[in-house]
Design a protein that fits this description.
Strand content: 35-45%
Mean pLDDT: 79
Order of helices and strands: HEEEEEEEEE
Shape: globular
Number of helices: 1
Strand order of the largest sheet: 4-3-2-1-9-8-7-6-5
Number of strands: 9
Structural class: mainly beta
Helix content: under 10%
Length: about 160
């Protein structure tokens, strides 16, 4: 009987105890944020060409005589004793203070470089040109002067 009374007392005390609080709902698990990736630097803007080097360009030289035109995405080189050479060219790109047009797929490869050089002289006339022009064709370098198309200086008539 004593055992029954002790069991009854234990049950009574157990009934008076407060139940253990239920654990609070867990906060939603957030995915771990990836470490911040440094932003890529902005793409470099190609340097702008000076106004004198934009658009179509003409050039000519002496010893040997030659003439070049860079118009509408084409380069045309004319020289005595050579057939005219015409090739599609990539748009001008700045290389230092010069504009460069290239036609690497023609045979021989063709490269035209023009830079602002007021007072450029062709060495044979009294004409003064605003640009120095250089043509590299198949390992041969032709040096002369030039201007924007339609602005080539003309001698007295």
């Amino acid at each position: 009987m004593r055992a029954a009374a002790a069991a009854l007392a234990a049950l009574t005390l157990a009934a008076c105890e407060r139940p253990a609080p239920e654990p609070a709902p867990a906060a939603p698990v957030q995915p771990a944020e990836a470490p911040a990736t440094p932003a890529a630097p902005p793409a470099a803007t190609p340097p702008a060409l000076p106004a004198q080097l934009q658009g179509d360009i003409e050039g000519r030289g002496t010893e040997p005589f030659w003439a070049v035109k860079v118009t509408g995405g084409q380069i045309t080189l004319e020289r005595p004793d050579h057939p005219p050479l015409t090739a599609g060219a990539a748009p001008a790109r700045a290389e230092g203070e010069a504009a460069v047009w290239e036609a690497p797929t023609v045979n021989p490869p063709l490269r035209v470089t023009a830079r602002v050089q007021p007072g450029c002289s062709d060495g044979m006339s009294d004409l003064s040109y605003p640009l120095a022009v250089e043509v590299l064709v198949g390992g041969e370098t032709l040096k002369g002067c030039g201007a924007r198309a339609g602005e080539m200086p003309r001698g007295e008539r």
